[in-house]
Amino acid sequence: MHQPVQITAEGQTLVVTLDRPKANAIDVTTSKALYAAFDRLRSDPRLRVGILTAAGDRFFSAGWDLKAAAAGEGIEADHGPGGFAGITEFFDVGKPVIAAVNGLAFGGGFELALAADLVVAAEHAEFALTEVTLGLVADAGGLLRLPARLPRPIAVECLLTGRRLTAAEAARWGLVNRVVPAAELMPAARELAGAICESAPLAVAAVLEILRETEATSVRTGYSVLRSGALPGYRAMLESQDAREGARAFADRRKPQWQGR
Questions:
Q1: Which contiguous run of DSSP H or E holds residue 8?
Q2: Residue 23 near residue 59, CB atoms below 8 Å
Q3: Against a cut of 0.90, is the pTM above it?
């Protein structure tokens, strides 16, 4: 039986491919399969970073599977512990996820990309939160994440009209890290993943933890969180052998040998 999500480990990188022809739409089964993939990324110490992409070259994802909805899958169906698409409410993956957007990312597909930490987009990719045109709202993260990343008038326009953002426009607004020709999409995502893997694993985990706990706070409150002792990943990084190794390697003018402890 064809699986809606394909998973391949490439060294320290887990490549997760959404594969549901023709539009890579997401139903409950697919959401739970995506969650399982990201849970593997979280729990496997050999893995450092995930790349999320999709099969084909037209759609990254059209979002919620409206055919499944028409067949009876309710609008409030349980999509599993990670929420819609397995990651939109999976807040503690603890490792970076790169979305390699290979085409149209509409509705929940855009929300899926917004849930990633970094985004590489093919030149022909487009992004849109189309829910209002279907009598719905972007409640799988779009309403929460997009206004935090775009100027409010632009975000509100997208949310109220469903208008499309080209990859180039998304890059201008800082929604994507890189825009590349389609043939270079996965090489660019792998290059970015490789750069992350060169960094100390506990430091990378600490960055994600600190961002998660402080992004919605003031700088003053953020400092209070840092100094509170309530961030175990940050504390583990400060006390790690890797923190000492980094300083020694710099002094010795050599490449550090990270141990993850």
A1: strand 5-10
A2: yes
A3: yes
Residue 244: its H or E element: helix 241-252
Contact yes or no for 149/63 (Cβ under 8 A): no
Q: Which of 73, 123, 126, 131 is catalytic?
A: 131
pLDDT digits (tens, 9 = 90+) for 85-96: 999 999 999 999
**Is 239 among the residues known to form the active site?**
no
Q: Mind listing the pLDDT tens digit for each residue in 182-210? A: 999 999 999 999 999 999 999 999 999 99
Q: How far is CA 180 from CA 52, 100, 168, 186, in A?
A: 16, 10, 10, 10
| Candidate list 10, 73, 111, 191, residue with the active-site label | 111
Strands in 131-254 per DSSP E: 165-166, 178-180
- The verdict on whether 157 is a catalytic residue reads no
Indicate left, alpha or beta for 194 from its phi (over 0: left) and psi (-120 to 50: alpha).
alpha
Locate tokens 């990324």: which residue?
A: 41
Bridge pairing between strands 126-128 and 165-166:
antiparallel
